[in-house]
Write a structure and sequence with these properties.
452 residues; OB fold (Dihydrolipoamide Acetyltransferase, E2P); 3 domains; eight-stranded mixed sheet; seven-stranded mixed sheet; 9 helices; binds S-adenosylmethionine
Length: 452
């Protein structure tokens, strides 16, 4: 095997120069990169090599010799083992700079000359998540809720998740205690046995409505009536209690079939003055306070005058579409999850919006058809998942040539790739606005406007 500049279990003193997009400190040993877990730029640390590859190595920090002024005390040491909050040791203003810098770096690499504005952050960057998906496993013979340790499926027991709405944490513990009381077995991944796989909880930030979904390996859950009765009595905010069947050997959390045990089969919440129904299988942004900031950026960027046709691709339950419909002539949404499209249609009528239509389908297929049919959009909104736009989608944009493209992105790497592709059709972007939707984590959301 080729000789590497460092070897496994070696300890060396290094100075950290940068932070990777995953939040690991980067040091160089004669130009060879060392990724040091938990270390911050400017810090001098003792690094213990855990893995040495041909082109880089991983290390663990065993001693902090000189700390960064941006280092803060993490909320909980154990919590750091999970990867839920990989930036919790970095002061919040520095987290916001880190995100801006990440986008700048990716744009530079893609040779894009676009100004990246300072990240819009939160006043209180904890307790913001409106959704939790908590794995349930047996730990030492006891049904336990918590989170997986990084790069593993070993469950670390946790009661306070810090970044979730504290009411969600309380609801999870209440469900856990009832499952313990009625001796319901937790799921066992090794042999696909047991009953309870996950507890999924959503809470409306504005409505305070609570939705609990018990994800189970079977429909047959003992004492279900007792559990439902006790939960409804204990949680006055409970608006929806559901059972979701997932009996496949998979890392996907939710199965396709859901039964309502109590209340509605949806949750309601408000955003920018409109009410939205959200089904358990539908996407809904997890940081409601910052979602309003993000959507306002997108609405301002679209600069609608009232006579435009807007396409909202990857429209989910229609949150962006319906916010835009108030300022446009017509909005067409396209989304691949049928339940989300159903929600979007209901949401249009709940908010008395008559100029928005929603289609189920892959955005790349539907956009191609619209372009072939000669449909013209003045504004194209895109809010794709992390993998960004499909090449067929970008090609259809080149055919339709909307006047403006407003790109809401949750992954700056695919954003940079897609902007470069759209440039081929004569689009340019002047600036990018990151909005911090996920404090304490490395995830980056941003809005970019492209015009011809
Ligand atoms: C980041 S979410 C945005 C949803 C919505 N704009 C919002 O803010 O709530 C991306 C959405 O794209 C949907 N999706 C994923 N792949 C798709 C595809 N190929 N075509 C259409 N929709 C897709 C997902 O189901 C999800 O609802």
């Amino acid at each position: 095997m080729a000789k590497t500049p460092v070897v496994k279990n070696q300890e060396l003193t290094v100075t950290i120069e940068d932070l990777t997009y995953e939040g690991m400190g980067v040091a160089k040993v004669d130009g060879y990169p060392l990724f040091v877990d938990g270390a911050l730029p400017g810090e001098k640390v003792v690094a213990h090599i855990t893995k040495a590859e041909k082109k880089f190595a991983f290390a663990r920090m065993t001693e902090l010799l000189e700390a960064s002024p941006d280092r803060v005390e993490p909320k909980a040491k154990a919590y750091a083992q999970t990867g839920i909050a990989p930036l919790q040791h970095l002061a919040y203003p520095a987290q916001l700079k880190f995100k801006q810098h990440q986008v700048e770096t990716l744009f530079q690499k893609a040779k894009l000359d676009i100004e990246v504005k300072p990240t819009l952050g939160m006043d209180q960057p904890f307790g913001y998540r409106n959704k939790a998906q908590i794995p349930v496993r047996m730990v030492n013979g006891v049904l336990t809720t918590g989170f997986y340790k990084r790069r593993s499926h070993d469950l670390l027991p946790l009661e306070d998740f810090y970044i979730q709405d504290p009411e969600i944490d309380k609801a999870v513990l209440m469900v856990r205690d009832l499952l313990r009381k009625y001796q319901i077995p937790a799921y066992n991944e090794a042999d696909n046995s047991g009953v309870i796989r996950h507890i999924v909880v959503r809470r409306g930030y504005f409505s305070h409505q609570l939705m609990i979904v018990l994800v189970t390996n079977t429909w047959a859950v003992d004492h279900l009536e007792d559990i439902v009765k006790e939960l409804t009595e204990a949680l006055p905010e409970l608006a929806s209690l559901m059972l979701n069947l997932n009996n496949r050997k998979t890392n996907v959390i939710l199965g396709k079939k859901t039964r309502t045990l109590f209340g509605h089969d949806y949750l309601e919440d408000q955003l920018l003055g409109s009410t939205f129904r959200i089904s358990p299988l539908s996407f809904y942004q997890v940081n409601p306070q910052q979602t309003e900031v993000l959507y306002q950026q997108a609405i301002d960027a679209a600069d609608l005058k009232g006579n435009e046709t807007v396409i909202d691709a990857y429209s989910g339950i229609g949150t962006i579409s319906l916010s835009m419909a108030k300022h446009a002539k017509r909005v067409l949404g396209v989304e691949v999850v049928p339940e989300a499209v159903h929600d979007a249609k209901v949401n249009a009528s709940l908010n008395s919006i008559k100029n928005a239509e929603f289609v189920v389908g892959k955005a790349e297929d539907v956009m191609t058809k619209w372009a072939e049919d000669g449909l013209h959009a003045d504004v194209l909104m895109v809010d794709p998942p992390r993998k960004g736009l499909a090449p067929e989608f970008t090609a259809a944009v080149g055919k339709m040539l909307p006047d403006k493209v407003v790109y809401v992105s949750c992954n700056p790497a695919t954003l940079a790739r897609d902007i470069a592709a759209l440039q081929e059709f004569g689009y340019t972007a002047k600036s990018n606005q990151p909005v911090d939707m996920f404090p304490q984590t490395t995830s980056i959301e941003s809005v970019t406007v492209l015009t011809k």
